[in-house]
Amino acid sequence: MKSAEQLNLQALHRVRSRLVTQRTAVINQIRGFLLERGLPVRQGAAALRLALPQILSMPAESLSPRVVRLIQDLAEDWRYLDRRVALVTKEINEIAEQDAHCRRLMSAPGVGPIAFQVPDNESQAIHPIQDFSIRITAIESSIWGQLKALAEGYAATHVRSALVTRRIAGGAH
Q1: What is the pLDDT of residues 92-148, one digit of tens each?
Q2: Suppose 114 and one of 64, 76, 96, 164 were both cysteines; which one would form an S-S bond, judging by CB atoms 3.0 to 4.6 Å apart?
């Protein structure tokens, strides 16, 4: 049976995951509206964030006032979701820093409060949690062995949902 603290942390991870999914959907919708109007923006939230002010100030022949208003509203939704994700992430990090089990798990290379990162030159974090068991084979056996030893006696579902992205060589990012 999970403790109240474990259930609380699990709930925070679920909320964060939902918020990130919603934020991604908003970003993709903005990008889609622009692409439909012949205004491609390169991939990545940062590229879209940089391009939006210039795009929204284009003449009405490129974007109608209605579409500009829709995109502005979606951009406000995006900013709101960014703030919510940051707040929930901060809360997860605070809990992880205070929890002895989380601190112990995070002592393994590449482990932190949000996801589990594959070592070496692979930059893609293991997230969402469903990919964890499939992608774990990419992790060096010594690191996986260390993680298993650290996690012994702790609920596997909590181990999977209490991990955070951290650069192997550069520490937290």
Answers
A1: 888 888 877 777 777 776 677 776 544 444 444 444 444 444 444 444 444 555 555
A2: 164
Q: What are phi and psi of 111, to 5 degrees?
A: -110, 135
Q: pTM of this prediction?
A: 0.67
H-helix or E-strand spanning residue 117: strand 116-117
DSSP per-residue letters across the chain: ---HHHHHHHHHHHHHHHHHHHHHHHHHHHHHHHHHTT----SSHHHHHHHHHHHHTS-TTTS-HHHHHHHHHHHHHHHHHHHHHHHHHHHHHHHHHH-HHHHHHTTSTTB-SS-EE-STT---EE-SGGGHHHHGGGS-HHHHHHHHHHHTTS-HHHHHHT----BTTTB--
